[in-house]
Amino acid sequence: MATKVTTPKGFRDFLPQESSLRAFVLEKLRKSFEKFGFEPLETSAIEFAETLKGKYGEEEKLIYEFTDRGGRQIALRYDQTVPLARVVSQYPTLPSPFKRYQVQPVWRAENPQKGRFREFIQVDFDTVGTENCLADAEIVTTAVFSMKALGFKDFTVRVNDRSVFDGLSPETIRALDKLQKIGETGVIEQIKREGYDTAQAKALFKRVKNSSPTKRVGELFDLLENFKVEKDKYAFDPTLARGLDYYTGLIFELEIEGYSGGSVGGGGRYDDLTGIFGLPNVSGVGISFGIDRIFDVMNELNLFDSIGLTTSTTKVMLAHFGEDERNYCIGIASQLRYAGINTEIYPDVTKKIAKQFDYANKKQIPFVIVIGGDEMKSGDLALKNMSNGEQEKLKIDVIISKLK
Amino acid sequence: MATKVTTPKGFRDFLPQESSLRAFVLEKLRKSFEKFGFEPLETSAIEFAETLKGKYGEEEKLIYEFTDRGGRQIALRYDQTVPLARVVSQYPTLPSPFKRYQVQPVWRAENPQKGRFREFIQVDFDTVGTENCLADAEIVTTAVFSMKALGFKDFTVRVNDRSVFDGLSPETIRALDKLQKIGETGVIEQIKREGYDTAQAKALFKRVKNSSPTKRVGELFDLLENFKVEKDKYAFDPTLARGLDYYTGLIFELEIEGYSGGSVGGGGRYDDLTGIFGLPNVSGVGISFGIDRIFDVMNELNLFDSIGLTTSTTKVMLAHFGEDERNYCIGIASQLRYAGINTEIYPDVTKKIAKQFDYANKKQIPFVIVIGGDEMKSGDLALKNMSNGEQEKLKIDVIISKLK
Description:
The structure is a homodimer of 404-residue chains.
Chain A: H1 16-35, E1 39-40, E2 46-48, H2 49-52, E3 65-67, E4 73-76, H3 81-90, E5 98-107, E6 119-128, H4 133-149, E7 155-161, H5 170-177, H6 179-193, H7 198-209, H8 215-226, E8 234-236, E9 247-256, E10 265-270, E11 284-290, H9 291-300, H10 303-306, E12 316-320, H11 323-338, E13 343-345, H12 353-362, E14 367-371, H13 373-378, E15 381-385, E16 391-394, H14 396-403
Parallel strand pairs in A: 1-5, 7-8, 12-13, 12-14
Antiparallel strand pairs in A: 2-4, 3-4, 5-6, 6-11, 7-9, 9-10, 10-11, 14-15, 15-16
Helix pairs in contact in A: 1-4, 4-8, 5-6, 6-7
């Protein structure tokens, strides 16, 4: 029987070049979150189905749910907010406020299409257990700090307050959320569907569009100024809506200038996150980054190049003319590795030098040292820069300080 | 309806203190693997069920398998070796040899018990596509280097060659694998069950036990000497068996002195890994670390303490006597954070100082700075060491250089 040699649709493998760039991005984000006192949390990939059900509205049908061998209904993690609510409810000894970040895959039975996958990493950071606006301001400051850490320059955190929508139906709020897609006419059409005539609907939309910043938005902006966040990095936008029903206060969306793929992150303040788990009156605020989109834009804007990231984690490869030379490489490799330089030895002793160079090129290893009999005698090693072809004869200690 | 506030049996959450120690261990391992030219690979958590079936022998019943909404039989990742084989077969443009490491969760419907979970992280590193013994030697050297990077001192890589068992049945090999559990008598009983009398069984066991190192073992040991791996870090053990059927050459097991929980890693050389995916004659060698056990031993041996790892990622918290002081903290926090120091501001302005200190203690934050009116006027900040209670009045730039 032939076995399928592919993943199901909507699922991906990340080969080394992509995987190491992604790891770099995630590590930068982790370090940024930790700078602001957020600590890592990991939750189980599998939850009881009932833990997830009744939490996601009509999206619930996208949960991966199944029966295990013991007859239990279980489900794969769908987001990181419901597991966070479970954790805060389950472990009463956690510090409060609880500041955590979480970087784990989630699974959704979506229709796979460009940029939409059935498995993807979510990156969330939240402060749960305080209503103080400092928490909101720190969430926004952390988001701005993180984006700068990744090399982004032109981006904005759009801010709104859900109270701007008081009296509007969830359907209208969802229509507003699609403003950039359906335009003003589309939003007004939706408002009319709720029993207003054209003039009323237009007036209602205009009222929303011309709303002034609320007191809470003012408080946030004062704190952001105190945090020294540059003024061009945030802006009040009364038409910002966010799709999810559970936001109750400030809401945020992160936009990168010149990127048409939509917002790369968003979030807001939610009340009563843990009520359904028996712990009432816990308010939280957080932002979630869309890592696939961030990765997309970084590629588009050549940010990986500009921060000097080669696409191989290996810095230098040792090539050789035969077994004695290969074994001589082992000593050289040890010196390089103990000096902290990622080093590879081409293992086979039967392959021509050209073949070994092909391998280094394929892996995009930036430097190759070629070891022949002369090099073994003199200790003068030929270091070849693979991007410009230049070659220098150098002693190993010079090579080490050069590559470090 | 009350919602269950727990994970299913055999599944775990990792709260911040444990999660950050685990992240530290995994990061050390990644960096070690990269030093030797291994690059990261990530595969899809969900595979077609047929990709996994027929690969794990009787363990197959432990695969988490289910039908998705489209009627496809899909399954959760069970190990990282079969996905590696799929990837090597699926992407013909990958460099060969392919040196990858992989750090992802796997799921097994095991009977949960002490130290055995239904979801756990596997840490694998393999070189696929060369039979050269240098690859085997580098795998062992990388394992030794990684263990030392984690602070381990007394450990051994036990080495054997599967050819020592030529002529023995898989059942006898599996009995040998349990030697430490069932003793010599247990192994001999098993051999007898295959039609030998007591004398024959004893002789057979003795023959295995007194086997000399094979030529390949000798070649490995020469290379390890060349790699300058200390001689007490590896040893030939003709009774080492390894449970899995697919090993065909050298096999390895990693043992830590004084730890009774079993080996913390193991692996070996396997031929024809990818044959079942239509790509014949691909030989590989690798080791897999058991991260839960490694984490256990590190706790047991206090290695986290000895490498100076505090259990909070946050270095300092700013406490305050009210809103003005809290807002003054924001500027101090920004200076600390931009200097690279993980800093937290206690957000609420209504909580007493004692309550703020409780919070810092709970999070095991090592330093607290208390801001009152005097501090705001003089800029002399009170830095309190939370482990010994000592307090010093210092300017912010002195604090920064102290905490860095």
